[in-house]
Amino acid sequence: MSVHMEVQPSKENGENRATLEKLLRDRQRKFTSFLMKVLSAENVDAVHDFRVWSRRLQQVIAAGSSKPAAPEARSTIRALRRARRAMGVWRDCDVVLDLVNRKMRRLREVDEKNAYAMIRDLAMHKRERGIRRARRRIASRKLLTLADRTERLLAERLQADSLPPADTISRSICDAYEQWREALARACERFDPADIHCFRTRTKRLRYRIEMARDLGDLEAENALGFLKSLQDTLGAWHDYQQFLRLTAEALADPEFMLRKAKLVASLLRKSDTQRSARSERIQNLLASTQQSIETSMIEGWIAGLRTRVFAPAIASGQAIDRATPQAESPTQSDNPGSSANSASLVADATADSAPVDDFVRAMNEAAR
């Protein structure tokens, strides 16, 4: 079944509208269930699922909202984005702890185990602080009353314009795909960590919007989703290792430990830097191959078909085509690291991912000599 069909349009539009409303309610319930879990327990999977379902819910609201978006929609999206960011330290520490524990299980040298124990202890300390801070921020009235807010969104008619719901979703996917291609081009141009992170964020956004097309009945969307999920997993592993390197440099910078174990610190950082370089090279190759093959890829073919079904009738009738991103997802409000509001801090963060390791390795090599 295609996203856009021509048979019995009014009946299909009604069915799609009902499906879209069901999607919104289902994702709101899922998100709320994980909200309760992270407020009452410290389950690693619940933290991950909380962030994933916040994105899924956000994309339903953003893609389904009329333009300009209603104040209720904009307010809900801001609350979801802030909640997700509040959970960032908690999630990063969970990932780092998993990496450290796996490394420690393979180690035999006592000094190396002690060094990684320092990294683990620092991660656990940061995690405890991150949990307290996150819970204070997400235990807000805006999130706890999300069910009522969802019903108000539906009452205000998310689909306030005249377009069928499937066409509205399709247009939002095309917008997200154009932004994804632009982010890919920027990431390939310099392979800057901030640009790679931006591309990773755009990949998530595009994936969650395409999920809506699949849920509205487009079976071909599944192939595009498989491609994006694989890409997202690889980019996610790169991001996780960047966080691990940052915490490693911070933990091993303990003055007393450095004075006593200078050669060990230098050795560990050299190993980390070698692995970082190898992972960065793999990401560069992945981005370059994606850029080279995208024009003939399955996702490009699917998007081209989507554009034809949605925009061809408007072109034929001489209507203007508005491909602007919905106001609720404007660049200055989005998770996009390249936005004017976030670019300075994220570029600093991205530089910090690699600079401490590079500088620290050189310094410790000198100390070891």
Question: How would you sum up this structure, described in words?
Answer:
By secondary structure, this protein is mainly alpha-helical. It has two domains: 17-161; 164-369, no CATH class. 80% of the residues lie in helices and 0% in strands. It contains 14 helices and no strands. It has helices spanning 9-40, 44-64, 71-86, 88-106, 110-138, 141-144, 146-155, 165-190, 193-215, 221-252, 255-260, 262-293, 298-316, 343-368. Helix 2 packs antiparallel against helix 3. The longest helix has 32 residues, at 9-40. It is globular, with a radius of gyration of 23 Å. The termini are far apart. Mean pLDDT is 80; it is low at 1-8, 323-334 and 336-357.
What can be said about this structure in brief?
With 369 residues, the protein is mostly helical. The protein has 14 helices and no strands.
Reported for the largest beta sheet, the result is: none
Oligomer: single chain
The average pLDDT is: 80
Low-confidence stretches: 1-8, 323-334, 336-357
Question: Could you estimate the helical fraction of the residues in percent?
Answer: over 70%
E-strand count: 0
Total helical elements: 14
Q: Round the Cα radius of gyration to an integer and report it.
A: 23 Å
Give the ordered list of helices and strands. Answer: HHHHHHHHHHHHHH
Whole-number tally of structural domains: 2
- Class computed from helices, strands and strand pairing: mainly alpha
- End-to-end Cα distance, whole Å, is 68 Å
Percent of residues in beta strands:
under 5%
Global morphology: globular
